[in-house]
Amino acid sequence: MAIIVNLDVMLAKRKMRSKELSEIIGITTANLSILKSGKAKAVRFSTLEAICIALDCQPADILEYKNEN
Questions:
Q1: Domain parsing of the chain, residue ranges
Q2: Is residue 2 within 8 Å of 60, Cβ to Cβ?
Q3: In terms of CATH architecture, what is 3-65?
Q4: CA distances from residue 43 to 15, 16, 18 in whole angstroms, order as listed
Q5: I want to staple 25 with a disulfide (CB 3.0 to 4.6 A). Which of 2, 11, 43, 50 is the partner?
Q6: Pseudo-torsion of CA 30, 36, 40, 45, nearest 10°?
Q7: Neighbour count for residue 33 (Cβ, 10 Å)
Q8: CA 4/CA 12 separation, integer angstroms
Q9: Three-state secondary structure along the chain?
Q10: 33-42 per-position pLDDT tens digit
């Protein structure tokens, strides 16, 4: 997929664990893991907003587009 999820990078920069983030934003660790691995088919804007608030970042810090040509 051409969309790369850099959530693990942002978590490391903020010195935060996945479990802590999942509790802050109100989703399960399993769903956060799916999102982190890039296997999610979609992400709600409300979830993306909650992640950005919790990590004090922009959506572009988490999601990246790479052309696969």
A1: 3-65
A2: no
A3: Orthogonal Bundle (1.10)
A4: 23, 21, 17
A5: 50
A6: 100
A7: 14
A8: 16
A9: CCEEECHHHHHHHCCCCHHHHHHHHCCCHHHHHHHHHCCCCCCCHHHHHHHHHHHCCCHHHHEEECCCC
A10: 999 998 999 9
